[in-house]
Specification:
single chain, 228 residues, alpha+beta, Helix Hairpins, SH3 type barrels, 7-stranded antiparallel sheet, 3 helices, SGF29_tudor-like_dom
Length: 228
């Protein structure tokens, strides 16, 4: 899919998603009145300490309406989720198409898709290489190099680097329950973030999080995946 065509479709889908979100709120507001009536009816029944045929019939009608309202809201939410899935798919197709095209041309700078952030490697004072967090500013097709900014507010240094010294960061998080590869495995080599810094170090995974436990990988682990 052409990049311009993908951008146009994504913009169209975002507009449709916005309308679905508004529709969801309208459905929810419309059902609130019926839910209040259900609560009040139960309160009256408790006060009178009996279930008369009148209340039984009334509650049956109220619950039928509540069920229909809930199904209508669920249908809108499902349509919204479908739009989100399509947007994510188009963004991934766009990324792949741009990569195949040679990581952009001068007329289409890479910052439009890579501004989200990258890891870059720089030489430390001691001569060792360090990986730090950065953002792409521009790309020179002729020189085959990126200009990137160190995101550390104290530094704000600009570097010119080749592709091999940059790792694009993932855009999306994945669910470990549906995508087991979202989690790194024991003894797997990763880049982990030093606490309270924007610098990364090479590390080995000691143990992945247990199923059902909060996601607790080493802070800032980054190896090109979308797992938390």
């Amino acid at each position: 899919m052409a990049l311009v065509s993908a951008d146009s479709r994504i913009a169209e889908l975002l507009g449709e998603l916005h309308q679905l979100i508004k529709q969801t709120q309208e459905e929810r507001s419309r059902s609130e009145h019926n839910l209040v009536n259900i609560q009040k009816t139960h309160e009256r029944m408790q006060t009178e300490n009996k279930i008369s045929p009148y209340y039984r019939t009334k509650l049956r009608g109220l619950y039928t309406t509540a069920k229909a309202d809930a199904e209508a809201e669920c249908n809108v939410l499902r349509r919204a989720l479908d739009k989100i899935a399509e947007i994510k798919s188009l963004l991934e197709e766009r990324r792949i198409a741009a990569k195949i095209a040679g990581i952009y041309s001068e007329a289409e700078p890479p910052r439009k898709t890579m501004r989200r952030g990258v890891l870059m490697t720089v030489k430390a004072l001691e001569g060792d290489e360090q990986w730090i967090l950065a953002e792409v500013v521009s790309y020179s097709h002729a020189a085959n190099k990126y200009e990137v900014d160190d995101i550390d507010e104290e530094g704000k240094e600009r570097h010119t680097l080749s592709r091999r010294r940059i790792i694009p960061l993932p855009q999306w998080k994945t669910n470990p329950e549906t995508d087991p590869e979202a989690l790194f495995h024991k003894d797997q080599l990763v880049l982990a973030l030093y606490p309270q810094t924007t610098c990364f170090y090479r590390a080995l995974i000691h143990a992945p999080p247990q199923r059902g436990a909060p996601c607790a990988l080493p802070e800032g682990v980054a190896k090109g995946r979308g797992g938390c």
